[in-house]
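Students often ask what a 'structure token' actually looks like in practice. Rather than answer in the abstract, let us consider Phospholysine phosphohistidine inorganic pyrophosphate phosphatase, a protein of 272 residues. Its sequence is given first.
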Amino acid sequence: MADAGWPGCSKSLKGVVLDMCGVLYDSGEGDGVALPGSVEAVKKLKASDLQLRFCTNETQATREKFVAKLQRLGFDICVSEVFSPAPAAVAVLKERGLKPHLLVYDGVLPEFDSVDKTNPNCVVIGDAAEKFSYQNLNEAFRVLINLEKPVLFSLGQGRYYKETDGLKLDVGVYMKALEYACDLKAEVIGKPSPMFFQSVLNDMGLQPSETLMIGDDLVNDVGGAQHCGMKGIQVRTGKYRASDEKHPTVTADGTVDNLAQAVDLILGQRGH
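Now compare that with the structural description of the same chain:
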């Protein structure tokens, strides 16, 4: 463990928040694959006195379908424990009376069924994968550039993520393209947005100092959590790179080989 403060942190913990892709499993063909020891690690956390939530920037499926996939991989998890950007975006759109043009993966479209999409006055982009064609990006650009007050929502701002066949470009790359073309700043819904982390803390009824985030993305998972006052631990799975441990602006509170090791350290320090 990289951080001497880890033992004290473990004893005062009341809640743990887990990233999903790259921590629990690697996505890919079919349901993807569970990472070694991760199914058992989640079981151990659930059997402990700690509250557990899952915080993901997954935007290729509804939470119901996403959770069903993880259940098939063997994880004990339910929809109410999972926080993802699409439902959070819907709440913001309704609150502000906005009608979105959607550039998202087909699988997540049902999350937006309750939102009026006629004559859009904003754009929402998610990890649209193959849908990020020139034509579709240009269509989103045209909606934004023709608005008097353009509003762009991005369901995360990751640079890349890992699937079983290698790294894939994430939504942040396309968000930056639209920001540049339209000379605007996107509103990020999802990690590392403080509002997104705070919604998870509110659900648990915990303070940031009582909560630990475990993720594979140093900037969005670890840095985002630390910015809110939480501790952030990085696993050496998923999108982890050795260079993360020498990052110029974000230093994890600890770095572990995988989720199983992190959970054993946490519970070991708590006397479980």
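One point worth highlighting: The mean pLDDT is 94. Ask yourself how you might have guessed this from the sequence alone, and why that guess would often be unreliable.
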